[in-house]
Amino acid sequence: MSVTDHSQQQQERLLDEAMDWLMRLNEAPTDAALIAAWDDWLQASEAHAGAWARICRTWAALGDMPTAAPEAVPPVIDAVPNRSAHPQGWRVSRRSLGIVSASLMSAALVAVLVAPTLQMRFEADFRTGVGETQIVTLADGSKVTLAPETALAEDFDGGARHVRLLAGEAFFEVERDSARPFVVAAPDVSVRVLGTAFSVRDTGHGTRVELAHGAIALTPDKAEAGAELTLQPGDVVNVERADGKTERSQVDPADIALWRTGQLAVTDQPLGDVVALIQRQHSGWIVMPESDVAALRVTGLYDLSAPDKALMALVAPFGLQVRKASPYLRIISSR
């Protein structure tokens, strides 16, 4: 057996173990002995922690697969790049897993876990990890601040000024050039500017664009031809991935991309989306077993330098609690 084959078998074994832990924790999320045993397994090696993170991400990715029933896909947040899950709970039965055979699940794991991550690594010119931000200067002098867990590709060939947000969130400060519009392609929209400052975020279920100053033109991918939206300072547009629906609102321009200074300012956003933003700063995983909790609306200012304190401040007004089940797991619930 080659070294490569042995390594692949080892990875598959760890993924199987991580899947089993996920199912057992799902069936008994309050079992202290089970959580303690899982924590021991998780801390035994970095390979265990990596396998667990990949399994968590896979649940979200498998949500679009037609082979599994909707209830068989618990959207769990993990602490790795390319997160697409929305934190709305993680209840799932072993019976529902029978819909997907073991061999198909293994194939899906390989396809979903390995291919997108490798593709993003090849495509991205700039990447950040958990709790990491980075300021980059593009070829035209424009500056981009990358939020944690963000991947960005720069496409300036042939004089064009195009960038692609592959994952996460970025704040753009664009150098003015009337002859060459600056275009940002995100998962659900295309944003065209001449010179301005704005942020673009992949929320997992759509794309959010916020304009700090200047003016931009935004075109949702699923919009009819010529359906372009013009934004003014303080304007916010959310584009839903499922149906292309757009929602406009207003925020204080000074609060846009405040994460660059270690703070998070939110105005009437779903609690689940805000938890996902705090998750980018957290080394563990955050789950919300109660599905209705994620839809609660939140307005506030939070300190990102202390993620656990930010979580508690976020949920306390709703009578919710943050339980530290282990160094790697936080559970938000009403009890």
Summarize the structure in words.
With 335 residues, the protein is an alpha+beta fold. It has three domains: 3-123, no CATH class; 126-255, Jelly Rolls (Sandwich), CATH 2.60.120.1440; 262-335, Phage tail protein beta-alpha-beta fold. The protein is 29% helix and 29% strand. The chain is built from seven helices and 19 strands. The strands form four sheets. It has a seven-stranded mixed beta sheet, with helices on one face. A hairpin with an 8-residue loop joins strand 11 (216-220) and strand 12. The longest helix has 25 residues, at 3-27. The radius of gyration is 20 Å and the shape is globular.
List its salient traits.
single chain, 335 residues, alpha+beta, Jelly Rolls, Phage tail protein beta-alpha-beta fold, 3 domains, seven-stranded mixed β-sheet, seven-stranded antiparallel β-sheet, 7 helices, 19 strands, 29% helix
Number of domains: 3
Structural class: alpha+beta
User: How much is the average pLDDT?
Assistant: 79
What is the third-level CATH name, the topology of the largest domain? Jelly Rolls
Specify the number of helices. Answer: 7
Could you tell me how far the N terminus lies from the C terminus, measured between alpha carbons in angstroms? 51 Å
Number of strands: 19
Corresponding CATH architecture of the largest domain: Sandwich
Largest sheet: 7 strands, mixed
Strand portion, in percent?
25-35%
